[in-house]
Amino acid sequence: MYAAVEHGPILCSDSNILCLSWKGRVPKSEKEKPVCRRRYYEEGWLATGNGRGVVGVTFTSSHCRRDRNTPQRINFNLRGHNSEVVLVRWNEPYQKLATCDADGGIFVWIQYEGRWSVELVNDRGAQVSDFTWSHDGTQALISYRDGFVLVGSVSGQRHWSSEINLESQITCGIWTPDDQQVLFGTADGQVIVMDCHGRMLAHVLLHESDGILSMCWNYPAFLVEDSSESDTDSDDYSPPQDGPAAYPIPVQSIKPLLTVSFTSGDISLMSSYDDLSPTVIQSGLKEVVAQWCTQGDLLAVAGMEQLGDLPSGSLLKSALVKFYNVRGEHIFTLDTLVHRPIVSICWGHRDSRLLMASGPALYVVRVEHRVSSLQLLCQQAIASALREDKDVSKLTLPPRLCSYLSAAFIPTIKPPIPDPNNMRDFVSYPSAGSERLHCTMKRTEDDPEVGGPCYTLYLEHLGGLVPILKGRRVSKLRPEFVITDPRTDGRADEIYGNSLISAMIDSCNCSDSSDIELSDDWAAKKSPKISRASKSPKLPRINIEARKSPKLSRAAPEMSRSPRLPMRKPSLGSPSLTRREFPFEDITQHNYLAQVTSNIWGTKFKIVGLAAFLPTNLGAVIYKTSLLHLQPRQMTIYLPEVRKISMDCVNLPVFNPNVFSEDEDDLPGDAVWKDR
């Protein structure tokens, strides 16, 4: 076999990712008939739970076709938990998602017409140790650390519950493959067996000195009905891009193995809970996380390996992933070059992907189950040397091999996160596709010394927020703002360099009025970097003396006629702003991109480009309401096409900002949005 970390930028959230769960995506055309496994596992949704109590649901795909259509929305940030989310569990047969937080709150989410909502809530007030769905998806097993266990239906009805009196805590709970028994592991090395009706069957001591971390079976988590339809019958069929046998053949007639992970790093492979001669795997790793693939032939074990001592006296550790077969034989070792513990792993896309969470970072591993071909090894070696997809075209290779080599750079998770080296292009020019980017805006504290309040616009991704734009109010009388990019305050290298994760956390901790509330415990653990944020260079106040009187005359900028909007005579009272009001040094120093100006009533706005690479006029917004609100409110938006202008296309039409004045009521244009 062969495994390698996917090429491309590291995916990360703004807080630590604590748990993962993946499920296949059922196409709309297949919902009323048996699911073809190949098409079902080509696309899916990854659920992540993080330390801020937010659940992320992100779209993933394993096919290597760039022209494949994706959902309109590829990421959801689900909010509702009051503490960090420690467990996420998909229910594939019923397409539901269960999430648990550190305080014991359990939410069951369901998606309807593109929106996620909470269907069930259970809060016992005790910490949940494990949550597991039955293999048919009809029942849920909930185990608490204080010894209370509960089995309920998928609709929320309680079937039975029991209080297990133990001197130690329950650490995990699972169903047997036939869903007739439930097994619980404890911190003192015991396994407790109960039947599906809550009757106690057995107590078995597996290890006297080591506690049980987790238990699992080399058996599919859910029994998804597979059709007899051939894989090639699908319209979406494409030949494997990862070399021969990119999709493993199901392993036949493998007896289910109970896999028990201990705190020492040892793993026992048992035919049943009372197996007297289990196969013991001595992984040599600490903080072990183990998970069988869906086919049941490959066990992934992630943990930390001690490499040596640093001069400072601390230990140098590295995260490894070791793969074993059903006989406990070691097959392959993947060195991830990660120096933080891997807290969660999960398989996806019919075992061709292994997803790992380490701190705020998410890693995707491509797995080849069979003996890797020479073509695949060459692909990975060349891709590691190139590092970027655009360098493939520089190679003198046949088109077919170039396409195969480019497939190594196609990400499994299509992030909305822009290229760190092209951040300004991402926020300044429209994207080539038709995807929707869902954002969140957060406001900071008002600082009289700096000016008005600050606002930051974030992209939602993996349950976190990625900063893309910053804004500051520059007028106390009018709603006028100056917009900058996240490289403000001289932290360009920090935000998009090696300190990307810490910078994202720093930028997201400045809000006190967003819908994500930070706990007092988390606030007390802020790094020194966050406390030094106030020492960053302050933006100067914008001189607005020229806008105090509407009768003051202004110099009208030179503009060409827009093909969409008629040319109008500039009005003395029309709010406008040109680059001449900003010193060039200030624009360069503070990374100004644009400014939003308005009239005194806050009903008409203009967006003026300040950066040299942007056109002067970026658009206008007119807000209109009737007396006593007898007519529906209207918002007219003028947005010219903004694209990169080369030296060969210098005569492109430019948007005219003087399309309205403060005295006009009837405005041209067809882009009208009504709010009723």
Automatic annotation (TrEMBL):
Signal peptide: none annotated. It comes from the Eukaryota. WD repeats lie at residues 78-109. Residues 546-572 are annotated as: Disordered. Pfam families: Beta-prop_WDR35_TULP_N, SOCS_box. This is TUB like protein 4. The keyword tRNA processing does not apply. It is found in: Cytoplasm. Keywords: Cytoplasm, Repeat, WD repeat. It comes from Catagonus wagneri (Chacoan peccary). The keyword Repeat applies. GO terms for biological process: protein ubiquitination. One of its GO terms (cellular component) is cytoplasm. Gene3D superfamilies: YVTN repeat-like/Quinoprotein amine dehydrogenase. Residues 370-411 form the SOCS box domain. The gene is TULP4. Pathway: Protein modification; protein ubiquitination.
